[in-house]
Amino acid sequence: MLRTFIAVADKGSFAEAARSLNMTPSTATRAIKDLEESLGLTLLMRTTRSVRLTEAGEGYIGRCRAALAELDAAERDVRGVGAKPHGTLVVTAPMVFGRLHIVPVIDAVIRANPDLNIRLLLLDRVVRMVEEGIDIAVRIADLSDSAFHAVRVGEIRKVVTASPAYLAQHGEPTSVPELAAHRLIHFDGLAGPPGEWRFGAAGRPALRLEPRLIVNSADAAIQAACLGMGITRALSYQVADDIAAGRLKRLLVDQEPPPVPVHLLFQGQRSASPNLRVFIEAVKQYFRTARLG
């Protein structure tokens, strides 16, 4: 019943779910009805055009995914295939970080493990791991209060950069207050208080922003800086290649905030999973030499 419930929720259709599970639509409908009756809850809202989760269904489906993942792992162990990666691993990471640094890891993992498939979700938001069926997440943050198990694999910094051409024309700032006289490019998705950039170990000094350009994409902000449009702030891994190539210069290094750790986050009871183990080891190996800035 749980697999049927998840399939109907994912497909948004009893017919599509039944087809994917090789059963009749009436069998799928009966399974959901029996499940709802056993719980005394309505999990799915049906209309003539769609099927969607109720509030109770939203809360229940994550636990179903986690329970089935554990059952699948136990079944693989019993059948003797639990020692090697097998099935599907669901990974999430921030958009740019994932594109630059997690896709190469996945390439190596898939090449080395022919029975393992990976689903990668690149999302610039904090996902609900259990509810959304995520096995492992890349988080760029301090996680002292996390309920999940975390493995630290690296660290990054918030850096201020500009192109050599811009600095040659407008001068190079040597203190935070001097930034106010420059053309600023602000990426409004960068973590921190809205409308300001903070510096130093205690978040001071702080610069109230009056940017000439505001964008909702880190890539756009960096490209604008490379074109000489002004000074921008980004995460160090996002501009590492541009700095190394001389397209950007790092400014006010002694005023930068403390580094932010990069973690792999997963449920503690899943630590024995061969899928997780092989992915975590591949990430660790990659970040021993990766340039994060």
UniProtKB/TrEMBL annotation:
Domain (HTH lysR-type) ranges: 1-54
InterPro entries for this protein: LysR-type_TF_proteobact-type, LysR_HTH_N, LysR_subst-bd, WH-like_DNA-bd_sf, WH_DNA-bd_sf
Keywords, in A-Z order: DNA-binding, Transcription, Transcription regulation
A UniProt-annotated Pfam family: LysR_substrate
Keyword DNA-binding appears in the UniProt entry: yes
Coiled coil start-end: none
Gene Ontology biological-process annotations: DNA-templated transcription
Entry GO MF terms: DNA-binding transcription factor activity; sequence-specific DNA binding
Gene3D superfamilies documented for this protein: 3.40.190.290, Winged helix-like DNA-binding domain superfamily/Winged helix DNA-binding domain
Keyword Nucleus: no
Similarity annotation: Belongs to the LysR transcriptional regulatory family.
Name the UniProt record assigns to this protein: DNA-binding transcriptional LysR family regulator
Organism: Sphingomonas trueperi
